[in-house]
Amino acid sequence: MLGRSGDQWDLLDVESVAGHLLKPGSVFAFLAGHRRELFPDAMFADLFPSERGRPSVPAEVMASVIVLQALQGLSDAETVDAVTYDLRWKAACGLPVTAGGFHPTTLTYWRRRLAASDRPNRIFDAVKVVVGQTGALAGKTRRALDSTVLDDAVATQDTVTQLIAAIRRVRRDVPGAAAVVAAHCTAHDCADPGKPAIAWDDEQARATLVDALVGDAHRLLGHLPDAELGAKAAEAVALLALVAGQDVEPARGSDGTDGRWQIARRVAEDRVISVHDPDARHAHKTVSRRQDGFKAHLAIEPDTGLITGCQLTTAAGPDASEATIGAWLLADEPDKLQVLADSPTAPAICSPRWPTPGTRRSSSHGRSVRRSPVGSPSTRSSSMRPPGLRPARPDTPARSTAAARSSSAPPAAAAHSAPGAPPAAPDAA
């Protein structure tokens, strides 16, 4: 259940005892005086719908902590130390001198709840409203666009590992699938937690195993009971259809209808690298530097350092490109704006969809362009909508297996869904 702060000050409340020592105009002083109006309990009520259980840390406290953490760039452990020992943090959060800190994983818990909600950017949006009301960006006509890859801790999985894991997941999560696996899947015993016992240094043995596993996946998808599926089961079916097709192609001499498959001599665009985190992707910031994870995009006012827009996407794919996201980050900005961007982002400000009306924009490599006023059809088209971090799942909460099979028959037709959702942790002004 959602915890709430008391209406009365504690005897040793830092705000009442030493609040006058906070630097006027600082973020600490602002949060100390206005955190309840900025982050009311009702703003976070949907994160804790149940009235049962142990109360959470009060929402106004956690929102203030998240803002200060982003402002100072601290790790979770450093943030908890600041809440525990720094009187400015205690005053900003409305805590008494004697209040102890919470466990660092509490921040992860809140970020996960925010990320899974309908309004994952609510803290950033609240701070952005305040920035607009203060006029801090008035007359500021420059914006800088940039992005960076955020590493994911997930281990990259090969084709065999992904196929076996996806079959196991369907067997576990889809009603009636266990019997289908037992009857039709013979390439590997899914009850065995280890890898298949083959000569892994034998190329032909590996090829035979891949062919058999893909065949198992197709038979499993084709023989599942035709019934309505819940969200978890439908997601498992869609993921199996995806991994059964992304890395393989019809075997040499096959017309694609005889059920013979081989590892494709190419890497699938937007390839899922792990069934345990289907959102993670390969990324290449340079030719030699390869990373796995996600990509953070920012729009910043360079004079004040205020972040005017942010978006978290998968690390690769057309919907995660700097040009696509950069255009969205600038969509609500005023007309008279100079944009500083590197070459990958340049199409966002040099796009032909922004024709002649408007004012000049420039990129960091010196090219000037013109942009149409914000709100025109070109800047409000559906193609400008940003993807979020979480994939648009191929399945609705209730879906029949027949519909799932229709999207997964041949591996080449297994559909990717464009990943996307907003960031869990906002950046603060």
How would you describe the overall organization of this protein?
The protein is globular. The model is unreliable at 352-429 (pLDDT under 50). β9 (359-362) and β10 form a beta hairpin. α4 packs across α5, α8 (159-173) packs parallel to α10 (203-223) and α8 packs antiparallel against α11 (231-246). It has 3 domains: 14-118, no CATH class; 142-151 and 284-384, Nucleotidyltransferase, domain 5 (2-Layer Sandwich); 159-279 and 392-413, no CATH class. The strands form 4 sheets. Strands 1, 5, 6, 7 and 8 form a 5-stranded mixed β-sheet that branches. A two-stranded antiparallel ribbon has the order 2-11. The longest helix has 21 residues, at 203-223. It has helices spanning 14-18, 27-38, 59-72, 76-85, 87-93, 105-115, 122-134, 159-173, 177-184, 203-223, 231-246, 322-329, 346-349, 401-406, and strands spanning 142-151, 228-229, 248-250, 261-263, 281-284, 290-301, 306-314, 338-340, 359-362, 368-371, 399-400. It has 14 helices and 11 strands. It has 429 residues and is an alpha+beta fold.
Short structural description:
With 429 residues, this protein is α+β, with helices and mostly antiparallel strands.
The chain-level structural class is alpha+beta
Helix content range = 25-40%
- Low-confidence parts: 352-429
Radius of gyration: 26 Å
Number of helices: 14
Q: What is the mean pLDDT?
A: 77
Q: In percent terms, what proportion of residues is strand?
A: 5-15%
Number of beta-strand segments:
11
- Count of the separate structural domains: 3
